[in-house]
């Protein structure tokens, strides 16, 4: 009888511990993970005040500095390039390796484009690599078709 009571106590203790652990883990406050802020290279000649105030310098958007404008422009170019994914990848449905390589390049480019911490160099590199992958896919397809004309002839 004593052994039965001990087993009940231990099992209830275990179940109670599990329930309390689950309850505390579900109700604890979550600490948001801070996004690391990119540290752009410092300008060699910091100028606290612009030489001409207002809109006289020809800048149509004084709220953005040149680096931010370049980054926005580069991201727009990369987004335009990634928007053609379904069209470009669709050309290589019958070429599994070429399609896989191209899809991988698009995935990397989209990740870079969607990242809020991407630098100008990262965006330009991603754009360049994606364009290279698109060009390589076209040349690989052309080379494959030239090398395997006899294989492709019945399907043409």
Q: If you average the pLDDT, what whole number results?
A: 77
Report strand %: under 5%
**What is the rounded distance between the termini?**
85 Å
| Poorly predicted ranges | none
Largest β-sheet summary: none
Q: Descriptors for this entry?
A:
156 residues, mainly alpha, VlhA.3.0.1 variable lipoprotein family domain protein, lipoprotein, signal
Structural account:
By secondary structure, this protein is mainly α. It is built from six helices and no strands. It has a domain of 90 residues. The model has no long low-confidence stretch (mean pLDDT 77).
How are the SSEs placed, and which strands pair?
Elements: H1 2-27, H2 66-82, H3 85-90, H4 96-114, H5 120-147, H6 149-152
Helix pairs in contact: 2-4, 2-5, 4-5
Signal peptide: 1-22
Protein name: VlhA.3.0.1 variable lipoprotein family domain protein
Pfam family, one: FIVAR
Give a brief description.
Keywords: Lipoprotein, Signal. The chain is mainly alpha-helical and 156 residues long.
């Amino acid at each position: 009888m004593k052994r039965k009571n001990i087993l009940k106590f231990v099992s209830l203790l275990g179940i109670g511990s599990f329930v309390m652990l689950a309850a505390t883990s579900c109700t604890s406050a979550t600490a948001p993970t801070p996004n690391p802020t990119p540290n752009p290279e410092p300008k060699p000649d910091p100028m606290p005040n612009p030489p001409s105030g207002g809109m006289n310098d020809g800048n149509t958007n004084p709220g953005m500095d040149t680096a931010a404008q370049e980054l926005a422009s580069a991201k727009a170019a990369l987004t335009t390039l990634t928007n053609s994914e379904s069209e470009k990848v669709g050309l290589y449905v019958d070429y599994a390796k070429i399609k896989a390589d191209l899809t991988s390049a698009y995935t990397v480019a989209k990740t870079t484009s969607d990242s809020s911490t991407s630098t100008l160099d990262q965006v330009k590199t991603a754009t360049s690599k994606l364009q290279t992958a698109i060009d390589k896919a076209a040349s690989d397809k052309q080379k494959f078709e030239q090398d395997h004309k006899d294989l492709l002839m019945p399907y043409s």
